[in-house]
Amino acid sequence: MRFHPLDWLAVGAYLVLALGTGVWLARRASRSTDDFYLAGRSLPWWVAGTSMVATTFAADTPLVITGWVRSAGISKNWLWWGMAVGGALSFLVIAGWWRRLKVTTDAELIEHRYEGKPALRLRAFFGGYHAVITNTIVLTWVLVAMKKVVRVVLDLPDDSWDTAIITGGVGLALTYSFLSGFWGVVVTDFFQFFLAMIGAILLATRASEMLGGLDGAREAFQTLSETTTSLFPSTDSGWEDLAWWTQGFGAFLIFFGVQGWLNKNADGGGAAVQRFSASKDPEHARKAALWFHIAHYAIRPWPWIFVALASMILIPAADLPMITLGDGSLVPDHEAAYPMMMADLLGPGWFGLLCASFLAAFMSTLDTHFNLASSYFVNDLYRRFIKKNKPPKHYVWVGRFTEVAIAVLAGSLAVIADSISDLFTFSLSLLGGLGPAMLLRWFWWRTNAWTEISALISSTVVTMGLIALGSPIPYPLSYALVVGISLVVMLIVTWMTPPVSKEKLQAFYDTVQPVGAWKPFRMENSHNPLRALFVGWAGGVALILGLTLGIGAWLLGQASLIYFGTALAGFLALAKNWHPVFQRKQ
What we know:
Elements: H1 5-29, H2 33-38, H3 45-55, H4 60-72, H5 78-81, H6 84-101, H7 109-113, H8 116-153, H9 162-210, H10 213-221, H11 226-229, H12 242-246, H13 249-259, H14 270-278, H15 282-299, H16 301-314, E1 322-324, E2 330-332, H17 337-345, H18 350-386, H19 392-416, H20 420-430, H21 434-443, H22 449-468, H23 477-496, H24 502-512, H25 530-556, H26 561-577
Antiparallel strand pairs: 1-2
Helix pairs in contact: 1-9, 1-18, 3-9, 3-14, 3-15, 4-16, 6-14, 6-15, 6-25, 8-9, 8-17, 8-18, 8-19, 8-20, 9-10, 9-16, 9-18, 9-19, 13-23, 14-15, 15-25, 18-19, 21-22, 21-23, 22-23, 25-26
């Protein structure tokens, strides 16, 4: 047993704080569904944005990144860094548009944007799909990561304790979410983010000390292969080589140019939309999205990447536990290197602090997705189609028991799952084809409910078909195929089906005032700030990725000035177009 009494004290202190907050906020959360799911729509940008960062960091995140760095190099992170391309649209315009709509979930948008039976059925489907499928997948991989961490920190000899670990973790997070709803989520997320960052930086500092300080670590990293330490994938092979598309520069092009903005979170995603809607006003929603992107991409990952590189020197692959792949072969579990670094490098008390930070990150993600899954079920299924006009407390209690059901389902799946990375890429592919439709509904008036229905069906069919065929096309090439086929199908279906009525579209335009192909609904001679949109978007991408690469290059001892210069130019472009692209037209 690696735990010292000081470690138990650190973890216990966090649990008292978290559960105490849940009890304290229980009464406020019970007042209405707006309080239980949106914190009364009263959050300032720095709370909403920090909550977004906290909920996207769970026990799985540093493990996944460690596995990627050890097995494929730093450049593997373009799988998610590329999403900053589309994410820049959220803080430029889309976050504010969501707040103007005043929805509870992103599924609710369907009936604001479309009409008739297709819209009703699509909203009901998305309500059930996100409540039961997408959120359950996220909860499952978070729980898989947690059981891996606990196995290492408690020095458990095998997986015989997995059921108890998952039951305890689910029970803890569920109790907290059950009591306090979204109020408790955002209040504790604020503290959980800083605790998690302190823990990650602490471990990175200890890893640096083991290698002789920052300069010593930089020298040690130079002994690793260039493939491992390069910020960009290798371009050695040609485009005709399959490896170029799956691991090399072709993969980077797909991550940056396709998956980066055509993905399941193309216009925000459920957890982000919940925080946009909970913000005080559209301007706070946009600022929350901007702060999230800076912290999410530029600040948070580098302590994990630093530890992953250090682990390659301090923990050889032969010392890692083994996992069994689908074909029966045994391979080293590179994801386990991160908790092993925790256990090996940190002394009593400090080890407990980092474990508490992992627990905080774990809780912040679980309670968010329990609450979010519940909001889909209650708002988009139960209250809309089953039981209308009930008292607010009725829906709150239905939501609480929905959380219990989702928790049992996710916990059961986590007992039998092993690979976090596989679950992550599967979830991206399954809804990847929806990305174009999710963007077009904001920027093109001709989009209708059948656009999204056809994109959803084609994306799911192609993804499951590739799996049934034994995945003959590896990721991310398979992702580009899913998106490409879905895009063609949805455009054909869109032109073959009737548009939404002018009255419905005019009401949507008047509320949201989107930018783009909305000419039939704009006032005569009104301004359509497309130039501000494109320049601001490019500036936002340059700011986020310039900071991300600049901080990483400096940390690794590589040339960083060009990246910081790019970030500065991006900031100036974004600042100049921040207000012109979003101002309300009279």
